[in-house]
Amino acid sequence: MIRLAKAMPGVAVGEIVRVLADDPAAANDIPAWCRMKGQEFVAADGHAFDVRRLS
Amino acid sequence: MDYTGDPAGAHAYLDAATAAPLHPVAREALLASLADGWADPSRLYAAGRRAQQLRDAATAVVAELLGVRPDELTFWPSGTAAAQAAVLGGLGGRKRAGRTLVHSAIEHSAVLHAARTTEAVEVGVDRLGRLDLAAWASAVAGDGVALASLISASHEVGTIQPVAAAAELCSEAGVPLFVDAAQTVGRAELPAGWSLLSASAHKWGGPPGVGVLAVRKGVRWLSPYPQDDLHRPGNPGALGLPQVVAAAASLRAAVGEAAAEAVRLGALVDRIRDRVAATVPDVEIVGDPVGRLPHLVTFSCLYVDGEALLHALDRHGFAVSSGSSCTSSTLRPSHVLEAMGVLSHGNVRVSLHRDTTAADVERFLTVLPGLVADIRKEAGF
């Protein structure tokens, strides 16, 4: 989550970051992070989670 | 901020939703009832009759406070045992109707463990932790539903559930409703319309080791345990009578204080909700801001390990609990927070009780932002 937050400034608005996380809380907490930080949760595939930068 | 290992002030126990400190009335009643409460109330000699009087008086008090008849009430060795007896016995009594248990996604784990013994249909909640009544309606109207189970208010986030409306839907479908009221009994008004209800004495200031189960007349309930042939069904084996007497006395005291305490603790909870949101960056206060228990508040902090925050608070003299993974008996994050879709890491539940002072809460609110900042810094954020 911290690495996702740190990576965001280096991502252009509209682009997608793929997060690889095997933490059992990730499937819940990455969408929650997106909601709290105003970013878009795109999709999850196993341990991969795609997040689009909106702002 | 450096950690000396010594709490910076007096200890503040803020985990009443796990176990409330013993009410002084419970302590008095416990000590007094040890004199007669050791005997077996089913024996016919004088000592047995004295124990029987104690048992009957305690049963009458609890029954009256719960609004049930004494013969609808049984005592169990814990709230968990009572809740599981409700589920298993409720299913057992309705075998002919089917074997499906409909339950909310935010039931206590005791109920979820019992649900694993049968077929179960889970009904979700919204972001605030409120039951999805439309989904509930179609679930309880399904084929083969023997029993439905709904917690009175979430033990993790405090959101009060629409029990009366859910009970109405159960009644239309002809399905009995079990309500786990552990967080409500002794603190707030009980909802109406249930068929079975359980509670736990150490949540209201009674001693640990006492659960209560009420089964309304006309509700088919079959004990999941072997029974003797003299008594009405209940927990097999000897009753912890002194604890039961103490539980009854403290329930009467708690119910008497509940309205005033709800106002006092509700104001402290409001203060925590407002100040945590204002002083801790990247925090989410979870649960219904309005329809909630008066004494309980939960929040989650981004970029914070829940276990680390629990230990940091403990070092500063605060006992709180957490729904983050690795903070209790499970490696997974709380099923309640997951069902709500709210952040599960950095999670803290604060629950207040009659000994909690405004000064305790102030000190907690003063210390918390620095601890969160320290943990974030240590994690490299």
UniProtKB/TrEMBL annotation, chain A:
<protein>
    <submittedName>
        <fullName>tRNA 2-thiouridine synthesizing protein A</fullName>
    </submittedName>
</protein>
<dbReference type="InterPro" id="IPR001455">
    <property type="entry name" value="TusA-like"/>
</dbReference>
<dbReference type="InterPro" id="IPR036868">
    <property type="entry name" value="TusA-like_sf"/>
</dbReference>
<feature type="domain" description="UPF0033">
    <location>
        <begin position="2"/>
        <end position="45"/>
    </location>
</feature>
<dbReference type="Pfam" id="PF01206">
    <property type="entry name" value="TusA"/>
</dbReference>
UniProtKB/TrEMBL annotation, chain B:
<dbReference type="InterPro" id="IPR016454">
    <property type="entry name" value="Cysteine_dSase"/>
</dbReference>
<dbReference type="Pfam" id="PF00266">
    <property type="entry name" value="Aminotran_5"/>
</dbReference>
<dbReference type="InterPro" id="IPR000192">
    <property type="entry name" value="Aminotrans_V_dom"/>
</dbReference>
<keyword id="KW-0663">Pyridoxal phosphate</keyword>
<dbReference type="InterPro" id="IPR015422">
    <property type="entry name" value="PyrdxlP-dep_Trfase_small"/>
</dbReference>
<protein>
    <submittedName>
        <fullName>Cysteine desulfurase</fullName>
    </submittedName>
</protein>
<dbReference type="GO" id="GO:0046872">
    <property type="term" value="F:metal ion binding"/>
</dbReference>
<keyword id="KW-0808">Transferase</keyword>
<keyword id="KW-0479">Metal-binding</keyword>
<comment type="similarity">
    <text>Belongs to the class-V pyridoxal-phosphate-dependent aminotransferase family. NifS/IscS subfamily.</text>
</comment>
<dbReference type="InterPro" id="IPR015424">
    <property type="entry name" value="PyrdxlP-dep_Trfase"/>
</dbReference>
<dbReference type="InterPro" id="IPR015421">
    <property type="entry name" value="PyrdxlP-dep_Trfase_major"/>
</dbReference>
<feature type="domain" description="Aminotransferase class V">
    <location>
        <begin position="13"/>
        <end position="364"/>
    </location>
</feature>
<dbReference type="GO" id="GO:0031071">
    <property type="term" value="F:cysteine desulfurase activity"/>
</dbReference>
<keyword id="KW-0408">Iron</keyword>
<dbReference type="GO" id="GO:0051536">
    <property type="term" value="F:iron-sulfur cluster binding"/>
</dbReference>
<keyword id="KW-0411">Iron-sulfur</keyword>
